[in-house]
Write a structure and sequence with these properties.
With about 270 residues, the protein is of the alpha+beta class. The protein is built from 8 helices and 12 strands. The protein starts with a strand and ends with a helix.
């Protein structure tokens, strides 16, 4: 039984959809979160029906609203009394469902652009924390809001059985690796005593490798800096910044030789010190 708390949400301005989840359950990220860019996001939990994910996304792609997806999935499921489901559609409309057979505390809360839900919780404060944190964090990117939501929910009580695994999934059309993937963030912690701490650590690494420094924040490569770069690359045995960055998994932060991302410069200086 995937007893857990989760939030499905979107950032319509950024054109991103996703799910964040934590549970006293092994590898919760392999079951609960589902998302498709421009279509929406789904969380399936409690006595989870894994078909709610792909089947619900298919309905969203066909133009069904969040409320209609919830109704159609649960109406067709004889086990719906034990299910819990959250959906956000491509227009930011949301809907949740908590079956009467879900173990207490179980319930949900929805608002513009999000659906928060949980079961086997200490109390409803956990779901309230998910919702209120999301509503109050509009200045952050979606993945960062998700991390804050999970932390707030845990601080409010969380899963009454404890912690074990957590995950964040965020998608955006062509916003992933190299502009060729739709997965913006897809991070999972499958078995940890403090999975939210580990999830935040992994997100920090993800941002270092794949995040973006605004071009206005890049450093112009003048003659002195160019010599420094060449010298440091030579120490490491590389003929070009591109070659070194590829090995360091920083290729997404390199674009030509006239300016350098400060994150790349800092890493190069560390490696060649």
């Amino acid at each position: 039984m995937v007893a857990t708390y989760s939030i499905c949400a979107c950032d319509l301005e950024a054109q991103q959809w996703g799910v964040a989840v934590q549970s006293k359950f092994l590898a919760v990220g392999s079951i609960v979160p589902w998302a498709d860019p421009l279509a929406g996001a789904i969380a399936t939990q409690a006595y989870a029906n894994p078909r709610y994910g792909p089947d619900g996304l298919a309905l969203l792609r066909d133009g069904a609203s969040a409320a209609e997806v919830v109704r159609r999935l649960t109406d067709a499921d004889d086990g719906r009394a034990d299910r819990q489901l959250g959906v956000v559609d491509g227009q930011g409309h949301s809907a949740s469902y908590t079956g009467e057979g879900c173990n207490e505390w179980a319930g949900h809360r929805t608002g513009p652009g999000y659906a928060a839900q949980g079961n086997i919780l200490v109390s409803g404060d956990t779901v309230d924390a998910l919702a209120e944190t999301f509503e109050g964090s509009t200045s952050k990117p979606l993945a960062g809001r998700f991390l804050d939501c999970l932390d707030a929910a845990q601080a409010a009580g969380g899963d009454r059985r404890g912690q074990q695994s957590a995950a964040i999934l965020v998608v955006g059309l062509g916003q992933g690796y190299g502009g060729l993937a739709d997965s913006v963030v897809d991070l999972r912690v499958d078995d940890q005593h403090r999975p939210l701490e580990e999830l935040r650590r992994l997100y920090g690494i993800h941002q270092q490798l794949f995040g973006q420094t605004p071009r206005s924040g890049w450093i112009t490569v003048d003659d002195d800096l160019r010599k420094e770069l060449d010298d440091r690359l030579a120490v490491l045995g590389y003929a070009s910044l591109d070659d070194w960055a590829g090995v360091e998994n920083l290729e997404m932060r390199v674009d030509g030789t006239d300016a350098i991302d400060p994150v790349v410069l800092e890493r190069l200086r560390e490696r060649s010190a």
